[in-house]
Amino acid sequence: MSRRAGGVPSTSMLRCHLLGHRFRFSSEGARMRWRCARGCGAEGAKTYATASDAERYARAFDREDREDLGRRGPLFGLLPLRLARALRGRRAQT
After folding, report:
1. Does residue 83 have a pLDDT over 60?
2. 37 within 8 A of 23, measured Cβ to Cβ
3. What CA–CA distance (Å, rounded) separates 37 from 25?
4. If DSSP codes are grouped into helix, strand and coil, which group holds residue 79?
5. pLDDT at res. 80
6. E strands of the chain, at which residues?
7. Sheet of 31-36, strand order
8. Virtual torsion, Cα 76, 42, 53, 30, nearest 10 deg
9. In this structure, are residues 27 and 51 in contact, taking their beta carbons and an 8 Å threshold?
10. Among 60, 57, 19, which Cα is nearest to 36's?
11. If residue 76 lies in a helix (H) or strand (E), which one and from where to where?
């Protein structure tokens, strides 16, 4: 495996370029921090007026939408799943 500057594996960076970052959010006092869980090195922070604001935003952003996968998602990538769900919904109504 080749490495890029900073010692971050290039396969991690490639994965994030193809699939997008998987940010995880946390709070430390009035500061909200985020970091890519895939290990590509992407991270950041933002300071809020209060610690409760930072915690509230971190909790709201730090979730994965896997339970909504068939109801909401990319239009073409999940089109067969969305069509199947729509047909099941119509059959249940009639």
Report:
1. yes
2. yes
3. 10
4. helix
5. 78
6. 23-28, 31-36, 43-47
7. 23-28, 31-36, 43-47
8. 180
9. yes
10. 19
11. none
- CA–CA gap between residue 12 and residue 18 (Å, rounded): 10
Indicate the pTM of the whole model.
Answer: 0.55
Taking the CA atoms of residue 67, residue 70, residue 75 and residue 78 in that order, the dihedral angle to the nearest 10 degrees is 110
Q: Cite the DSSP H helix spans in 7-67.
A: 10-19, 51-61
Between these two residues, 27 and 20, which has the higher pLDDT value?
27
How many Å apart are CA 55 and CA 27, to the nearest integer?
5
Answer yes or no: are the C-beta atoms of 16 and 36 closer than 8 Å.
yes
DSSP state of 61: H
Tokens matching residue 50: 């209060």
Take residue 3 and report the two structure tokens written for it.
């490495």
* Cβ-based neighbours of 62, under 8 Å, separated by 6 or more: 24, 25, 26
